[in-house]
Amino acid sequence: MFHLPEGVIYLDGNSLGPLPKATPEKVGSMLTQEWGDMLITGWNKADWMGQPARIGDRIGKLIGAPAGYVVMGDTLSIKVYQAVASALELNQSRKVVLSDNGNFPTDLYMVDGLLKSLNNGHELRLADPENVEAELSEEIAVLMLTEVDYRTGRKHDMKTITEKAHALGIIVIWDLAHSAGAVEVDLTACDADFAVGCTYKYLNGGPGAPAFIYVAPKHQNNIRPALSGWMGHASPFAFDLDYQAGAGIERMRVGTPPVIALTALEASLDIWDMVSMADVRAKSIQLCDLFISEVEARCPNLELASPRDGNNRGSQVSFKFEHAYAGMQALIANGVIGDFRAPNSMRFGFTPLYIDEDDVVGAATILERVINEKLWDNPQYQTRSRVT
């Protein structure tokens, strides 16, 4: 059900998911039959206006959120900003935002920029990932973590950490960029306050696909949206000059919905409707375990950077190698696509929707040749591109 080039083993769905075969037709139909034939009436006739909430509910099924608590739109960076800004207002007497130094840098950039704009004595504090729980205290306003570390795949215990944070009066935000479609997530059972995530990785929404935000029921009508966009207004087409926040999750909408991109995402979600996250997760652990076993047997020069226990790991495996960038470029040239993460990691993602045991063994076999025959030691693989 996915378009995968002949002769390629694709182990980078944790960075960009492949194209579902149904996407071109679905998007083409939207372009011609909706945009083409309906023109501007498509906002009502095709319900483009309701698309962000409708698709948000479909994402919600994959992350343990009930209908009405997830909405789509904008980028993950924007959704991080929204969540942190709203969370800080819920805990105004405190000034510390805690995260870990394994968090994806853009999350930290967005928080740092927000706190500088507030200019009210706030502090962004970073802990080592394994020390987050020890750093929790009553001076912390907001805890913001990415559940699965983008570099190593190390997985935080969402439920335990959230419970401990709440016991100290801390508002908790989870970034699910490497979780949604990769691991089982139950935001309701974990009592998360906010969650954000992207859809171009495991969810196969396409490059630049829109992000999502979840707000817990207890907060939805209490939060003030820091980005008061017209789509989050209670009555956007009243064109009122004074902002009145919409009801519930609708207030977290900002700009005009990216209808074409959301339509592409819908094609992928049709596939996700056919599977259970429990089955996907179980198969993912099996594939990752097999890859670790195969690579360690074949490539003794590589050092495992990911947790060995699959329960503590997302759906990715990273190996450290002194010449990791060149090694990955050589691997890609030989038909296995993964990616490089600074300073020295070769990273591989495993999605059971289109990866099986034969792919895993085949990738390890090619990696063995690249490393042991030093195929990476070629000048053409040394020059770094803008995207690694």
UniProtKB/TrEMBL annotation:
Xref: InterPro entries: Kynureninase (IPR010111), PyrdxlP-dep_Trfase (IPR015424), PyrdxlP-dep_Trfase_major (IPR015421), PyrdxlP-dep_Trfase_small (IPR015422)
Record keywords, A-Z: Hydrolase, Pyridine nucleotide biosynthesis, Pyridoxal phosphate
- For this protein, what reaction is catalysed? 3-hydroxy-L-kynurenine + H2O = 3-hydroxyanthranilate + L-alanine + H(+); L-kynurenine + H2O = anthranilate + L-alanine + H(+)
Give the first-level EC class, as a single word: hydrolase
Q: Which cofactor does it need?
A: pyridoxal 5'-phosphate
Pathway membership, UniProt: Cofactor biosynthesis; NAD(+) biosynthesis; quinolinate from L-kynurenine: step 2/3; Amino-acid degradation; L-kynurenine degradation; L-alanine and anthranilate from L-kynurenine: step 1/1
EC number(s) stated in the UniProt entry for this protein: 3.7.1.3
On assembly, the entry states:
Homodimer.
Family designation: Belongs to the kynureninase family.
PANTHER family reported in the protein's UniProt record = KYNURENINASE (PTHR14084)
Job of this protein: Catalyzes the cleavage of L-kynurenine (L-Kyn) and L-3-hydroxykynurenine (L-3OHKyn) into anthranilic acid (AA) and 3-hydroxyanthranilic acid (3-OHAA), respectively.
What name does UniProt use for this protein? Answer: Kynureninase
* Species of provenance: Maritalea porphyrae
| Gene, per the UniProt record | kynU
